[in-house]
Design goal:
With about 220 residues, this protein is an alpha/beta fold. About 50% of the residues lie in helices and about 15% in strands. The longest helix is centred in the last third of the chain and has 15 residues.
Length: about 220
């Protein structure tokens, strides 16, 4: 994915300061321990959800924030935009287990500087951090290719919201009550989402959209 010999390293002696965001304490601890072994990297903070990420980044102003995607209390893609608003000098590197083209595109749209998988070797993750810090883009090549093939997310924000609720098994009436629309409008939006995902019903549409990272 990346090569360590070509990656710029800090030349002023100051380590790259990191905040790690992941809802699993074991993952946070393992990543922190691994990255602290690198002489030019320093883990200065942790967070377990999107709100905590924003608070820690605003407090610590790290150079790079390593951001998970699926977390309680708001996903990492939405948190990315809030983190960058709180600390414009911080760069966000998405580190996730979910190899979904839609997630890659959404993360980049939110302002993330890179997107890597959690199963990369530790030296590749450290190298990705250095590249992001240096202002260089970092993307999983296979995922980037798949994103180009699939194209942009065809669902509107409202369709994504309704389809996400439908995927939880809620009826059109229940969804309508929650999103403050009529049941007829909800059914129309679901029908549109079903067509855009090439599915036969709302359940299949929610599954397809989830697999592609569209919701």
């Amino acid at each position: 994915m990346v090569t360590t010999d070509a990656t710029p390293r800090p030349v002023d002696g100051a380590p790259i300061r990191l905040v790690i965001v992941d809802d699993q304490a074991l993952v946070r601890g393992a990543l922190g321990a691994l990255l602290d072994l690198e002489p030019d990297l320093a883990v200065v903070g942790f967070a377990g959800d999107g709100a905590g990420a924003v608070a820690e980044v605003a407090r610590l102003r790290p150079d790079v924030c390593l951001m998970d995607i699926q977390m309680p209390g708001g996903d990492g893609i939405r948190a990315t935009g809030a983190v960058l608003a709180a600390s414009p000098g911080t760069r966000v590197l998405i580190v996730t287990t979910f190899a979904r083209p839609g997630y890659l595109r959404a993360a980049l749209d939110a302002g993330a500087s890179g997107f890597v998988m959690k199963d990369v070797p530790p030296e590749h993750l450290a190298d990705a951090i250095r590249r992001v810090h240096a202002g260089l883009p970092v993307m999983d090549p296979a995922l980037a290719e798949a994103s180009l093939v699939e194209g942009a997310n065809p669902l509107t924000d409202r369709e994504r919201q309704i389809l996400r609720l439908a995927g939880e098994g809620r009826s059109a009436a229940a969804i309508a009550s929650e999103v403050f629309l009529s049941a007829g409008t909800v059914r129309n939006r679901l029908s549109s989402a079903i067509g855009k995902t090439g599915s036969r019903n709302r359940t299949e549409a929610a599954r397809v959209a989830h697999e592609r990272g569209w919701i």
